[in-house]
Design brief:
Elements (H helix, E strand, L loop, with lengths): L2 H13 L3 E4 L2 E8 L2 E10 L6 E7 L11 E4 L4 E7 L5 E5 L2 E4 L1
Antiparallel strand pairs: 1-2, 2-3, 3-4, 5-6, 6-7, 7-8
The structure holds zinc ion.
């Protein structure tokens, strides 16, 4: 499999079942043991092809991992802001990505 093909497959996985937040960002629900506990928030890297992502939990043990406040499920609003390991930083408010 060449690199270009791999990127397309990865892109399809991220977008399948994802919600477009705008500005090159998507959210995808994560269900553990039948319970919706988190979102994967993905975004396009500056190369415009490959995806980068972080997991944003709104349920779970705060001693084990950061837990965001789910202000609203629909339209999605999470608090506080989300900073990806790559440095990408912004807010999800009313179902839209807003750069911090
Ligand atoms: Zn990132």
């Amino acid at each position: 499999m060449n690199e270009r093909r791999a990127n397309r497959d990865e892109d399809a996985w991220w977008r399948n079942g994802s919600t477009d937040l705008g500005d090159g960002h998507w959210s995808k629900p994560i269900v553990l043991d039948g319970e919706h506990v988190a979102f994967i928030v993905s975004h396009l890297k500056p190369d415009g092809v490959t995806m980068c992502w972080s997991t944003v939990f709104f349920k779970g043990d705060e001693k084990k991992r950061p837990i965001w406040t789910l202000v609203s499920m629909d339209p999605l609003t999470l608090s506080p802001s989300i900073r990806c390991s790559c440095g990408d930083h912004g807010f999800i408010t009313n179902g839209k990505w807003a750069r911090a």
